[in-house]
Amino acid sequence: MTDIMKRKLLPNPDGRPEGVMKERVKLATYCNKISPILSRFNSELFKNPAVPTGSNDPFWSEEFFKNGALLEGDDDGRASFNTFLMNSMFMALTTGKAIAQIDTKSAIGAVSLAQQKESGELNPYVILHPRNALWDWKSGRDGFSFCKLHQFQLVQSTWDSAPIPQHIFTIFYQTNGAVFTSKYIVRKTPKDNKPVPPQPFINTVEQKEITIETIIEDQPIFNVRGKFEFPIVTLTLPKSLWMAAQLFDCQKSYFNQTAALEYALYTSNYSMPVITGVDDEDDDPLQNRKMGDGYYLTLKTGQSITSFERSGGNIQTAIGYRAEIKRDIYDVLQQIAMSASDGAAIIARSGVSKAEDRRPEEILLERYGQCVKEFILQILKPAAIAHGEIVDWEITGYDEFLGFSLTELLEDMALIDAANIPSQIFKKEIKKHFVKRAARCYDLDPEAVYEALEEIDNNNMTEDKELSGQSEEKELT
Q: What is the per-residue pLDDT across 383-407, written as a single tens digit (0 to 9) for each?
């Protein structure tokens, strides 16, 4: 939180001079109450990574999910896909939206699939962009059909050379089912052989002051046999779940009350001396001298010295009001949770644990988990196309967050068995639900869990065939 931002937040109801406001800004401490809440939700949400399945190519597990992401502002290394999702979700909680771009290495003229694989052209990665990177767009029911992304960079020709600022614009557009891209770099022309200042300039220059380099123009992006997927996708939270926006007013009020308290406490610690019984300047014992350590005054008969201090009533009121604001923050959090609840998640639980299910953390995490799974699917579709394959992805995870008792779950299973519900599909889904929760309890490997779920599906199909065969035999007899 910079001093400029603090000044914009601090009110000046009594019209104090700007010099006084600057002093208030210096003393104002910004205590962030929103960020710890967002971090806690994010940590809990991504404690157990999701398990995307659908492709047998080892590229996904060995490369893409391990180090196939570039984070915003981080061009010197790769991050894991789970770290990318964590950063994306934090950005969405803060700004309401995170933007992902799926990209590959630039084509170098490969003429066969084998050459593309060898050069790494078929190894996609995903880039995280902030919301303000999306400068222009057009979208419809099927997502984006046009978008323009902006990036600002400082580049150096050598490690000890002056950084050169440049603005990069990447454009994607869809025409007749195909997706094309263009890329341009804008640089400012130096004047009088002086280096260009290392700061953004795009909004302050005229056309004659810049040069535009074309990197790519109207080239088709990656596709598989003419099938394209738009390479820009977003994680967009509904307004009711955009947490930072809904908590901002409370955070702003908390900051203002804290700033007022600190300023009052600081100024009251340095009280103003008041000498009574002074009739004229000759009677003034200070004689324009400053009081300090080792300094003493001689008072005349009838004179006395006291201190002028501010009343502490306003301070007590501000302390009480600030405590109310803290409670308001958590009240708003509860309201966000209830707006996210659709009832189904609660009904699906046992009666014993229903009280826990109503916790705001659980309700919100389930809803956020659904948003993240949709985001993962949007990313993996074009990523698979970029890798040269069409994959029907399935995303598991992000559906169990709170601790529970395995004994309690077994008791619930026994009661369901006793009910003897005549539905094989229902029984199969209950078994899968038990495996997922038990796997979380014992921290089992996600791949092993996925194989166990497949075994249940396969066994259920075998049982269905046997039951069908027995039914046919009975009809024949």
A: 999 998 999 998 887 776 655 566 7
* Of 130, 110, 133, nearest in space to 122 by CA: 110
pLDDT at 357: 46
Contact yes or no for 227/385 (Cβ under 8 A): yes
Q: Which two tokens stand for residue 467?
A: 């039951």
Residue 171, pLDDT > 90, answer yes
Q: How many CB atoms lie within 10 A of CB 364?
A: 24
CB 390 within 8 A of CB 227: yes
Query: What does the alpha-carbon distance between residue 146 and residue 53 come to, in Å, rounded to a whole number?
Result: 30
CA 82 to chain CA mean position, Å: 12
Integer Cα distance of 227 and 126 in angstroms: 19
On whether the CB atoms of residues 406 and 441 are closer than 8 A, the answer is yes
- Residue 229 backbone dihedrals phi, psi, to 5 degrees: -130, 135
Q: What is the pLDDT of residue 26?
A: 84
Class of residue 136 by CB neighbours under 10 A (exposed 0-12, middle 13-18, buried 19+): exposed
Mean of pLDDT over the chain:
79
| Predicted pLDDT at 287 | 74
Q: What is the value of pTM for the model shown?
A: 0.70
Q: What radius of gyration, in Å, describes the C-alpha atoms of the chain?
A: 32
